[in-house]
Write a structure and sequence with these properties.
CATH topology of the largest domain: Helix Hairpins
Number of domains: 3
InterPro entries: MazG-like_dom (IPR004518), NTP-PPase_MazG-like_C (IPR048011), NTP-PPase_MazG-like_N (IPR048015), NTP_PyrPHydrolase_MazG (IPR011551)
Protein name: Nucleoside triphosphate pyrophosphohydrolase
CATH class of the largest domain: Mainly Alpha
EC number: 3.6.1.8
Order of helices and strands: HHHHHHHHHHHH
CATH architecture of the largest domain: Orthogonal Bundle
Pfam families: MazG
Number of strands: 0
Catalytic activity: ATP + H2O = AMP + diphosphate + H(+)
CATH superfamily of the largest domain: MazG-like
Shape: globular
Length: 268
């Protein structure tokens, strides 16, 4: 596979293209109308598409998906430059400075003779110093609001755990899970939609905590469950199609039987 001979030149070209798209006189009307808030959802979407390509090991698609994600960075930087806030060079400088500062065992005089676990602890200590320098005094301050809710739950729980606010182990979390499940049943009986949503959120939060104590990535676990559901439901569709039918033409009992057959086939 050929490699681009000059990454700097291609980066400058991308920045120039983005500036042209945002030109008020000759640019693209859609690009000109965008702002940080309108572009943010696309940024999140492109990051997920990168993760999807990696999960599928679609290595031929990955350069394009990474390019789409890079475009989001350039887009935000261009809008910031127009507002006199910062530009792409400031973005690149910020992450370069951060990487150097957080790796004194590579770029400084600290020893590299540490375990991966010790380096993670050192990383967290450096991040804590950075938060203190930004006057972030609360333990939970600085956990981004824009993170996916499940990911943010884990980060909030990890922050609290560092100062000792945590369950001793999975058994206690399972007890809490049973408690929250009972409260959800009570809320359902009360027919109060707002309270029901609150209790459901509490249950999800405890599930995230259980995943953390079991050393399971909840996002990855749910992605795997989604993939399994998709695979088995498609098996139902295929089996029905072989009979000249569709799911809406069959009964729940029939689809359940086909589901069980697909499940059994996966285990053989």
């Amino acid at each position: 596979m050929p490699h681009t001979p000059d990454a700097c030149a291609e980066t400058r070209r991308l920045i120039a293209i983005m500036a042209a798209l945002r030109d008020k006189q000759t640019g693209c009307p859609w690009d000109i109308e965008q702002d940080f808030a309108s572009i943010a959802p696309y940024t999140i979407e492109e990051a997920h598409e990168v993760a999807d390509a990696i999960a599928r090991q679609a290595w031929d698609e990955l350069p394009g998906e990474l390019g789409d994600l890079l475009l989001q960075v350039v887009f935000h930087a261009q809008m910031a430059s127009e507002a006199g806030m910062f530009d792409f060079a400031d973005v690149a400088r910020a992450i370069s400075d951060k990487l150097v500062a957080r790796h004194p065992h590579v770029f400084g005089d600290e020893s590299r003779d540490k375990s991966a676990a010790q380096q993670v602890q050192d990383w967290e200590a450096i991040k804590a110093q950075e938060r203190a320098a930004r006057a972030e005094r609360g333990v939970l301050q600085g956990v981004a609001l824009g993170l996916p809710a499940l990911t943010r739950a884990i980060k909030l729980q990890n922050r609290a755990a560092r100062v000792g606010f945590d369950w001793p182990g999975p058994a206690q979390v399972l007890d809490k899970l049973a408690e929250e499940t009972a409260e959800l049943v009570e809320a359902q009986a009360a027919a109060d939609p707002a309270h029901l949503a609150e209790e459901f959120g509490d249950l999800l939060f405890v599930m995230a905590n259980l995943a953390r104590h079991l050393h399971i990535d909840p996002e990855e676990a749910l992605r795997a469950a989604n993939a399994k559901f998709t695979r088995r439901f498609q098996s139902i569709e295929s089996a029905l199609a072989a009979q000249g039918r569709r799911p809406e033409d069959s009964t729940l009992d029939e689809m359940d039987a086909l589901w069980d057959a697909a499940k059994a086939a996966e285990k053989t």
